[in-house]
Every structure is written in C-alpha cells, then in structure tokens.
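In this supplementary section we document a worked example of the pipeline. Step one takes a protein sequence of length 174 as its only input; no multiple sequence alignment statistics are reported here. Step two produces a three-dimensional model, which step three serialises into structure tokens for compact storage. The input and output of this example are shown verbatim.
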Amino acid sequence: MRDLKHIVVAFDGNEESKRAVEYGATLKKAFPKAELTVVHVLNDKVEQRIMGDASAPGFVPAAGFYVDPVQTHPVVEVDQPRNQKVNDTPSAVENSIQNAESNTLRLLSECQVKGKFELLEGYAPDSVCDFAARTSADLIVVGNSAKSGLEKFFLGSTSSSIAKNAPCSVFIAK
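The serialised model returned by step three reads:
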C-alpha cells in the first residue's frame, strides 16, 4: 500500500460522518506524515456576489440578474460603495458553521490527532470531489448514507455519488 499524503474527510454532523472522522483520525495515525482535512459543505451560499455587466440595460445590480427592460418600468440605479463589506450570512448559517467546526475539532482532539477544517459550499458530492482534486487528495473518507431504501433510490446518496465521481480512492465508513 502506498503512503497517503492527504486525507479528506466529509463531515455533516450526523453519526455516520462522525464515524468517518474517527476513521480519518485512525488513518492519520497510521500515516503520520499525511495531511488531514475535514470538510463541511453548506448548500447555501455564504456570500452573495454580483455577476454580470452592470451597465447592460435591464441589469439589476443589487440582485445580480437581468430583467427584460421591455417588461419593466424604468429603475434608477443607486450608487453603492464598492469597498464596504456587508455580512449577509444569516445567523443560522453562522451557527451551523461554528457547530460543525467545533464538533470537528473536538472529535479530532478526542482521537488525539491534528487536522484542518475547511468550509465548502454548493452541492456536497461535487464540492467534496472538487476539493479533493484541487488539493491532490489521496483518499476521501465519508460516512455511509443514513437514507432509507426508497429515499436512496429516488435521491441517491452523497457517499455513493462521491464514490462514483471522486478523483481518488474513497473509504465509506459504516
């Protein structure tokens, strides 16, 4: 078996993902030179960004999308300071992030290993696989799906989607 250099563990707070963190910690102990990164994926956007050409007719800068000017009344554009950073992150999202990070660090501490916590956003399987590819991960550790048979059939599971699309080996913790 080759040496692992980077282990990525997907964590969403459920019991299966806690087990994945424990397996990741065990692997980190077996490969002490490996980097261990625990990732948590938010489905919500953490920060809103305006995209597009604000000078285009029908573009709504505050919303970041185009509206057909033929179907709207004229709107006066209001100047907004560019350098001002506004915290648009809802407190529920901030709490979720803080809980995930503190739970992750507590689990790693209990297992007596050091690791990093990374926050990703988007669709979980894609975000985890993209992160693994970007960071040249050797292994992704995920928890087994907690979905029932019908739910798994219609919606699929995060773990099976990651296993199918990962750029590296995947370990599914049960």
